[in-house]
Design goal:
This protein is 30% helix and 26% strand. The protein has 9 helices and 16 strands.
Length: 332
């Protein structure tokens, strides 16, 4: 099978495209004919060595996939050949990645694809939707009628948070930094979309909240959160959710935090158990099937251009030089 892999961490130029032996499913595993995969920031962090971990040799890149079951190993009862499946959480903890024509995945990390959803949509939704679902449901405990704020509503995670929160009946506030992205966030149903480039942003936010009450769940996607700005905007017993900022050491106004019974929650989706992720995947499938969740695909490339895909992802995530919105999807 053809695969995109590395034998040493480093720049995108380290990515090789070549033939590797076809994998064979063992007990509890499923062999998938890959139809599409998505590129995520963590893929670039692992490839570059920014996140150090012990990798198989050679190491196939990628966390997400969607495709068709070819074969099941012993002790697999949930899937059979011909089933269309999607999944994430690959390429870590010693597991091989997904950027290949075929991939072996433990059945506990796979979910059925709704009939009206294609491989590209399922792959594009995989990691970001599990992340959004875990944050909203498991950690944030979002309820209908609550006010949610999420920075960056046009991004992969941000746009998914907006859509799932609206489907749950929340009032959603988000931000964007270009006219196209502002329009996209509005098209997702966000109740207030703020242009973070304008000095009037805080005034507009304050006027909106004055009519509706303070924020119940703040989803922070910024690497350098501004907690002195955030905490005064929170309702009593509000929750602040952190999913970024490995090196951040923000100022923390403790008094205003604890006297309002606030909670500060940090999470990484890779810490969630298979059972927790499966519960979220059922919600994701329902949203995909109903059209409440429509992942935005910003760039489609063949597997052979995996290195270019990583460059584009880094320009978007790290360098902030790319206007690209939506997920990068590769097809074998």
């Amino acid at each position: 099978m053809r695969a995109a892999f590395i034998t040493q961490t480093g720049t995108p130029d380290r990515i090789q495209i070549d033939q590797l032996p076809d994998p064979t499913p063992g007990p509890g595993e499923v062999l998938v004919q890959v139809g599409a995969v998505a590129v995520n920031p963590i893929d670039t962090y692992i490839r570059s060595g920014a996140i150090a971990m012990t990798l198989p040799q050679p190491y196939i890149l990628g966390c997400d996939l969607a495709g068709t079951v070819l074969e099941t190993g012993p002790d697999v009862s949930d899937f059979r050949p011909g089933d269309r499946v999607w999944g994430t959480n690959q390429g870590i903890a010693g597991r091989q990645g997904t950027f290949s024509e075929r991939a072996v995945v433990s059945a506990e990390w796979l979910y059925p694809i709704p009939e009206n959803v294609d491989f590209e949509q399922a792959a594009a939704a995989a990691l970001v939707s599990i992340t959004a679902g875990l944050g909203l449901c498991l950690h944030g405990k979002l309820q209908a009628g609550e006010i949610l704020f999420v920075n960056g509503g046009s991004g992969g995670v941000g746009s998914t948070v907006v859509q799932l929160a609206k489907a749950a009946g929340a009032v959603v506030i988000t931000t964007a930094g270009s006219e196209d992205k502002l329009a996209y966030c509005r098209s997702l149903g966000a109740d207030l979309v703020l242009d973070y480039r304008t000095p009037e942003m805080d005034q507009q936010l304050g006027e909106f909240l004055a009519e509706r009450g303070k924020i119940n769940l703040w989803w922070e996607t910024l690497r350098e959160p501004n907690l002195p700005r955030t905490i005064p905007l929170m309702a009593k017993r509000g929750r602040i959710l952190l999913m970024a900022g490995r090196e951040a050491q923000p100022v923390f106004p403790l008094g205003a935090f604890y006297t309002n019974d606030l909670s500060l929650l940090g999470f990484a989706m890779f810490n969630a158990s298979p059972e927790e992720q499966r519960a979220v995947a059922a919600r994701i499938n329902a949203a995909l099937a109903s059209g409440d969740l429509v992942p935005l695909i910003g760039l489609r490339l063949p597997l052979e251009e995996a290195a270019q895909a990583h460059r584009c992802q880094e320009e978007k995530t790290l360098l902030k030089t790319s206007p690209l919105s939506g997920k990068i999807v590769l097809t074998p």
